[in-house]
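Progress against Task 2.4 (sequence-to-structure conversion) is shown through the following example record, which the project officer requested during the mid-term review.
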Amino acid sequence: MSTNFKSQENILKVSLAKRIQIGAVSGLIGGSGIFFIIFIIDFHLGLIPGTFYKLVGFPIGLEGISATLFGLISHMFTASLIGAVFCVCSGLDKKLKLSDPNKGIFAGGVTGAVVYSVFFIPITLLVILPLIENGTQNELGLITTFSNIESVYLLQNLALIVLGSLIIHILFGSIMGLTASLFIKQADKAAPRLNQGKTFTKILLVIIAGTIGMGIFYGIVANDNNISDKLPQSELSEELSKIRSDLNYAKFIGMSEDDRLAIVTQMSPQSKELVLMEAGKFDKIIDEGINQIAYNMESPNDLKFIQSAQISGIKGNDAQGKASIVSNGFLTYLRLDDFAVIPGIDQHIYFTKFGDVENSLDIGMLKANKGNQNYPIYGVNSNEYNQLVIYSKPFDVYYATANLQK
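Structure tokens generated for the chain above:
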């Protein structure tokens, strides 16, 4: 009796181990099966292939090739884990048994939809999306964002991504379920364990080789600058390519200010308008507290508001908020509260005498077009230079102004 019990217990353990093995391999096959679909989506959106995987690595501080490869490996590991759990759960009850391929496809598709609803949607909407939209702040309150222009297009196509991801998860689950049902059916026929082990080993080697190959493509080849020339061209890209054959919006934004200025001088009025329209689609947000100005102050009474003014739009551009000159007893700051202006390119803040940037003091690039922000100012007589202007020199566009008063 004891011998039979141990024998049954051993069979159960082997069965559980086999299910984990079958599930993990099935998950990997399903994960590999959707590589091509994700590549098609990237291409359709005009993104560098691998952008989806890059977003997985971005929240933990990785960038570029490292973020792409981390996302790819995480994708495969998660797929194998889902497959193992799926296959083990299918053996908990007779009703869940993957008795035929059709049942496997259905159960896998349902599992994919559940994973999408329980994990993908919350992580995307609560973690990744806010990081792309708002960036994250370091200890100084400075914004660090996903600098690649791909994030702009991801936000622009968010609805398509959410719907497409549901389809991808269902396809992944269906492929996983079909594969698992076929393997389990084969295992039920009591096939020699040695042959099954060889089969799994071959499949794993193929998947590993395929993942490495895809990783090399996504991480190195697809991130080559030349690939962007093969992506679908927009009207803006066509206009920019007239100036320089390899130029697109992403490369233009990635240039230094001086290089952008040199390019803008070669642009037609139509090109300038298209660039500014593209830049105006997406906000950059920051929220710096007044406590950053008051940091290390001996007394709160040392914090003094010297001048203030309401910010208004200029020359047809919308803007709002309040500008203040604030002193903490040691340094003087310009603070913008409840600030908002339409997004632009190379927007700088100037202290001027008469609103003319030709006779002004440039205190630097605008950190963000929305939100509270602080700027240390040195050697600025705000009684003399008492009119603030937000201006883009390359495009010669005035965005906002404020007349400071005591």
